[in-house]
Protein 1
Amino acid sequence: MMMNRRNAMAVLAGGSLSLADAGFGLSAAPKRAVHSTMRLSQHGSGRATAYAEANKIVTVDEKTHVTWLDSVQDGFRVRIRTLDRRSGQWSQTWTVGPAHDNHGGPTLTVDSRGHLHVVYFPHHNPFRYRSSLKPNDASAWSDEVQFGRKLTYPTLVCGPDDTLYLTARRSHARMPWTVEMWKKPVGKAWEMVGTILRSRAGGYSHFQEALAWGPDHKRLHLSVRIYENGGSVEVVGYMFSDDFGKTWRGRNGRVIEQPVSAETIDVIASGGRVEGKSSHKCGTISVTADGQPVIVYSASSSPGAEMIVATPDGKSAWSRHGLASAVAGQWPDWRIGPAAEVSINRQGTMYVLATMASEGKNGVALISSKDLGRTIKLERPAAGVKQAKKWLANLERVTGHHRVDGRPGVIFTAGTRGKGNTDILNNDVFWV
């Protein structure tokens, strides 16, 4: 069923279409790539839906909660709205708290009781944390709690006993930058588990680490891109922990001494911004029903990039499946962008969300596969949105006591990056 003119104009004007309006029900996959689109905000910051490693969508029972970062006259604000999947109606917009700048957006998870947990605020500052006062309800929150020092880029998951686990980059004035791991047991304060990753060089470093649980909700998997020494080293790596972050191991089970470095991690790919080497970025990580980690990363060199799905080959290496050629074959005017997100739903289907670029425009590609990337299907979930710049897409994935059933939700920013980290912008934030 194609959208009629009235419905199409409603989408472009920032209205919403119910799934029934779009021609399909919640329980059934659509026959065509027609999507329910909702404009959540007209005040999105320059990085309203960044970053990939920070999960922003949680579905519990018949409610989906979505969070992002607005910019308003008096600063940056973490927002959240809730979709009632039965009625197709969205709640009002609630404010969770402030952020330091456009790097301070939220990450979201949920515990076994249905309480939402959100971490947000910093760019080289302490984190701020709140939990919902009622299960499966984003309308009221606990008092704000601060923890840590000089932290940025959180990734948050909830453990089997409802302990929260978080990793984040720690900046240092004179020492190499690091990744710290923190935890919060139920009813207790946040406490640091340890420094789990470290750059080998002083000055600016970036990590892009992401966390995912195995099917037993006990093995914790981590993917990371270690960027150091001005980008001369860019390593995509993997490790896992069976004791909630105290000990980390490579794919073959070997213990890796902490803090782990680009030299000691289980390396999937390596490169750097020097002649003859590709620049690498890491997306997120997901885990199959049989415990197999699935990592998405990009390798780019002029003129384009390759998006790669990596899985253990069952021996001593990694199997890789490129996605860029398939995207180019269907949409030859578009190039796939760096990094992406991966999510595996309850039915075992893998979804990869990627940004595309074409002659000054950006778009969003949703790639699905039932065989981990060997064969794929393509959709353009943002095709009905009029803005030329559609980017920083974020994909619903499991981080706690919830699941992804069917097609995962997507949010993205439509608008401009701005000139600096403190620009007050009026970008659109869309849900698909």
Protein 2
Amino acid sequence: MNDLFETLPFRPADILLPQNCDLGLWSVVACDQYTSQPEYWQRVEERVGKTPSTLRLILPESCLDGPSVETDIMEINNTMSRYLREERFALLPQTMIYVERTLHNGKLRRGLVGMVDLEQYDYEPGSPAQVRATEGTVLSRIPPRVAVRKNAPIELPHIMLLSDDPEKTVIEPLAGQTGGMELLYDFELMEGGGHIRGWKLTQEQLERVEQALVALVDPAAFRERYALKDAFPVMLFAAGDGNHSLATAKECYERQKKLVPQDQWDSLPSRYALCELVNLHDESLEFEPIHRVVFGVEPEELLSALEGFYPGAFRGGEADGCAHILPYICADGQGQVVVPHPSAQLPVATLQTFLDQYIAARPGVKIDYIHGEQVARELARNRRDAIAFLLPPMAKESLFPTVIHDGVLPRKTFSMGEAQEKRFYLEARKIR
């Protein structure tokens, strides 16, 4: 372990990079994307064929409820072991990677790949941990993900941590230093994912990153940054993408802790999770709303139930500034439900509170969380048993203050970009 980062929750990792393969076919998008668009994953399947690929090392969430999920997981673990035996990976000890991702819209997103200490992460609302969840964790979503990870010899991350670094002290200084760094990869991502390049940080650069993070975690600076009068516990990072994947890693680590003495916890590979750190203030980073599409319903009946759930709620008409407006679209048309004087701060919380109880009472009803408005519209228009709710974006500057003061946001409150902008699997790390 690099002593430089001993007191920090983010540090260099023993990173595995693929070698002797087509990186454009190796790298596929995060498994929690395109869950209602099986044709996407079919295209990827056809494109990859028998070529070595992270497609063989992950289980798309659209397959979690499939009839052969246990067999699929076993095959994934076997493929991981086979790739290790075949030396598909090159080991980069104690490494951080500076990443530049050119998105499909031409914007450049900068990040740092390293690992997060799960001892310093907690997904419980109101946690004082330095690394916190941004959304409520749905505990029922963790066991199937644990089933995928618990026997896996390696991990592949789509987790993205956020730092609140308005002065751009940690990541951005590296942008002008790539000439003196080792270029590790440089290729085009599939399916409109854009272009990605990665460089290995030098020892001097690691030291500068460590110094910048230490400055961010300083308690006095933290209180000043958020105008805190009370001694709030320092929050250094927030999980931006991959909240449930990070929670799954935490759960697997906690299980392994029970099997060994406490003095061995530091040496457990499962104590850490590989991830990418991105500055909340990166110019490419835009908070997109995550829309809701509900399947297996009669839209009119659901809308009536929504009106009845909130006293005074009504469809259409004028709304004052205190109301929450919930636009919807279905095969028969579109409109909006107005909820006056809501108790929640955000429209997404108002909607989700209703949907949670509505779906719980109707086992046949399902909900999907869609990142693109056009996709949500098409799904709702093309099915008579579906309705989509279109939600407004959240100002990203309010993320850290909200989590610090109020705990986690309602799940799936925001997305950092659309599906093709999500992290693609590329780097790996041994966890057993």
Protein 3
Amino acid sequence: MHRPFLTKLLPVIASLVMLPCQAAEWSIEPRLELKAGYNDNIRLTTRDHDSVWETAVTPRVKFGTAQENWGLHGNARASIRRFFGGDGREDNDILDREDYFFNVDAYHRGERSEFTGLIDLARQSTIDAELEEGDAVDNTATRIRKTISPGWSYNLTELMRFDTSYSFTAVDFSDEKNSGSNRNNIEYDYQVFSGSLTRQFTPKVQATLATSYSMYQPETNFDSDTLSVQVGIQRNFTETLTTNWLAGMRQTESDTGKLVPEGFCAPPGGSFPDCTVGIPVVTGSKVRKNSDTDTGTVFSASITKLLESGQLSLSASRTSTPSSDGELLDTTRFIFNGEHRFTETLRTSLRAEYSNIEVIARASLNDQGDRDIYRVIPRIIWRFQREWEIAGQYEYAKKDEDDESGNATRNAVYLTLSYRPDKLFISR
């Protein structure tokens, strides 16, 4: 797959994020997590499966600096995961993974404008891809995702701002372990051009007109383009209650290429391949494209309430998203997050999710159907020392598919020990 955009834009983004660092104070925030747990359906599958035990070691570091007119922040993380138990298909040779993540973003402000840049790199297992992203891939593969995204904003007036951005994502797969799966993981490119106009009406109210154009290009004879237009309002009712919504329409144009023979009839009697008389003579083949148009709604909305001892938030969205299954998806998601602090050292949280995933267009390779995914995660966290905390977590997940494969459920319990030393500051 040719990716000229990636080659051309990387130096641009790199020059933006590698801003002058003289006389800058940098912060470094290291962290180490040790995790152990039990999972009765690690792949969230309806096929025969065994329970597994998991251990993980995750070192990470956050870094950054902020100056008068520029700043840079980044995050580097590794996760070493080991699995035990199973039936031979779910042993450490199949599921064990070493995942790596790195991202850095930067900004530079002028008198009326601001330039931004982002680089995001990830090499990770796809075990949790369907739960986290709705992407139904072979969940024993290793996915490599590279994203670059420059952006620019300009203050037209004191009350009106224009924003534009571009995002390019390339998804590849490394050599996959023998999972026994017959699924095909499809590599793809995904590009998004977006722009918005925001008007501040009062200190508590602002309106936005936004548009985006995306291109999904998997390594098949299939591609799709989506154009969307949305309008929305952000309203701060009080210092502790904020709402934000954006809604509109999208139109998706999809082209599917089909290899068809071409030639002539001998003796002449019709038009190949629809010969009424004669014998078809194949001289070659060509790709014939079938086009299709799909329209639908898109939206995003959220409400956040700050409490004296925590916060509550509810969000909803419907977006078109690419997949590694050769499909363009229409994903509707509702997420609830709640957090309550009992004391300065003891807190609890609850996350509940519902996702409905519908296929907008497909390359007709894997024939994945529509599906619903439910997920509930309660946690309790105790900071027993200034730099140490321990967290207990339960997870319930369920997947309902429209086809005859049935429903899959997951129950998992994890215990995580975290070490968070004080933030370090380095001046130069």
